[in-house]
Amino acid sequence: MKVYRSIKEFNVKNPVLTVGTFDGVHLGHKKIIEKLIMGAKQIQGESVILTLHPHPRKVLFPDRNGFGLLNTLEEKIKLLENAGLKHLIIYPFTKEFAALSSCDFIEKILYNKLKIKQLIVGHDHHFGKDRQGNLEILRNCANQFGTDVVKVEALLQNNQKISSTKIRNALLSGDTLTANSYLGYNYFLSGEVISGNKIGRTLGFPTANIQTEQDKLIPKTGVYAVKVIVDNVEYKGMSNIGSKPTVSSKPETGTEVHIFDFNENLYGSTIEVQLVNYIRKERKFKDKKALKKQLSHDKKAAFSLLI
């Protein structure tokens, strides 16, 4: 997959394109990508996504706290490449861009600069100023320039439409099973292993502390059964997301993982922690002895969930 950080670099024959943030690259997104690839093949063209970065909500509502992204930009790039996409344009989202009407966007960018042959849109897709560009408006505008607009129906799971918002809500409530079923993969946190307070090793449960990117969505606090990817090798483990109230008085939420049957030094390494299932809420124990006893129970629970 070729990545463009400027549309000036873009020169592709018969591009079939879709536009969106694609946060999560979930199963609903993959349905659109499959349609994109199929449409490109039919006209001997190339599949293209124009993704907006930063996320529009970060630009339009910067004062609203608590909005986390399912993917960092680099994670999204990797997931889109794995989905079979040929070209990815990372387009800067600004307040000036948000003021463009949908017709201006189609004419000035999609037609004049990218010369697209077909526009693929999701079932509820709106773009342009104040999200006024519905399917009818898009088709009327695009047809002026000989461009088809193809709608992709929503992907349903248990009669529910899959969406990034539903995945975020599931993760924030600790429902990793629903989130993962919508994503089509285990939700993961990745980052560099940094030094911690080293209390875990005194309890017989050494942990790696992960420094995640600031905008990444951190799920509900608690203990999770996890899979951990270290140098492309998968291990089983359990992770605590929270403030570790039994051993720390600091309120900051962090992510730490205990990897089963693993004793290598990971400081400075980048690892991936995949959340498989939620085990329990985080709570404060009366002492370290009680915490150690609970961690033994958690390990057994994690093993049973990771079989």
Report the sheet-strand fraction: 25-35%
What's the main sheet like? 6 strands, parallel
Q: Tell the overall outline.
A: elongated
The percent range for helix content is 25-40%
The count of DSSP E runs of length 2 or more, i.e. the number of strands, is 14
Structural class: alpha/beta
Which segments are poorly predicted (pLDDT under 50) over 5 or more consecutive residues?
Answer: none
Distance between the termini: 35 Å
Order of helices and strands: EEHEHHEHHEHEEEHHEHEEEEEH
Strand order of the largest sheet: 1-4-3-2-5-6
Radius of gyration: 22 Å
- Number of helical regions: 10
Mean residue pLDDT: 92
In short:
It contains ten helices and 14 strands.
What does this protein look like?
This protein has helices at residues 27-42, 56-60, 73-82, 95-98, 102-111, 135-143, 164-172, 176-183, 199-202, 288-305, and strands at residues 2-4, 15-20, 46-53, 87-92, 118-122, 148-152, 156-157, 160-161, 188-194, 208-211, 222-230, 233-242, 254-259, 270-280. The two termini are 35 Å apart. Helix 6 links the parallel strand 5 (118-122) and strand 6. Helix 5 packs across helix 6 (135-143) and helix 7 packs antiparallel against helix 8 (176-183). It has 307 residues and is of the alpha/beta class.
